[in-house]
Amino acid sequence: MINDSIDRYGSVTRFFHWLVAVLVIQQFFKFGDIINDGKHWLGETFGPYHTSVGAIIMILAILRLLWSMKQKNQRPIIEGANSKLVKTVHGIMYFCLIAMPPLGALYIHGHGYPVKIFGQVLIEKPAEKIQWAQNVGELHSILAILLAILVIGHIAVALYHHFIRKDDTLRRMA
After folding, report:
1. CA end-to-end span of the chain
2. How many Å apart are CA 170 and CA 154, to the nearest integer?
3. Which residues contact 20 (CB under 8 A, 6 or more apart)?
4. pTM of the full predicted structure?
5. Residues 108 and 162: beta-carbon distance below 8 Å
6. In the CATH scheme, what is the code of domain 11-173?
7. Helix-helix angle 11-27:139-159, to 10 degrees
8. Contact at 8 Å (CB) between 54 and 27?
9. What is the SS3 assignment for 122?
10. 125-152 confidence digits (pLDDT tens)
11. How far apart are CA 20 and CA 23, in angstroms?
């Protein structure tokens, strides 16, 4: 089943969800740069791909958002007092996934480096550092921390529904 239904998310929605989930968790390894000024296997292994994977995540998030809007009237219904909270958290997560790559590019560019995606220069190296781009780009880190907290919460709530409430919330996305 490609499309969503009242009982379960369709294969396209599940594909977007799990692919983005794996890529986002991989991106969190960038936090390894904090360890020993990036001279750690986490930063050295995942760091070079961080910008490129971030661009992929942004594109996938936009496509997933468009697909979600198309599927809106046939998706599983979120009921109860927490429905507004669930929708708000999902909205913030989408915002982070879409806003973080451009903010990261501003951060890189503002510090005087070219922005490269898969080795191809997307934005040339500036003649000098750009202070406003550095300042705005700092929001990337703030959103990364916010997203990490929301992802941990998202996983915790899914596991709560599966193991404590024993409902079909997690199964709808599996």
Report:
1. 13
2. 11
3. 57, 60, 61, 64, 97
4. 0.92
5. no
6. 1.20.950
7. 130
8. yes
9. strand
10. 999 999 999 999 999 999 999 999 999 9
11. 5
Location of structure tokens 């003649």: 127
Q: Residue 58 corresponds to which tokens in the numbers above?
A: 């942004």
Residue 33 token pair: 């740069």
Q: In this structure, are residues 146 and 92 in contact, taking their beta carbons and an 8 Å threshold?
A: yes
DSSP per residue over 106-130, as a string? Answer: HHHHHTT--EEETTEEEEPPPSS--
Residue with tokens 């404590």: 164
Q: Which amino acid, 16?
A: F
Task: Give the amino acid at 151.
Answer: V
Calculate mean pLDDT across residues 34-44: 72
Instruction: Identify the CA nearest to 69 among candidates 16, 20, 23, 18.
Output: 16
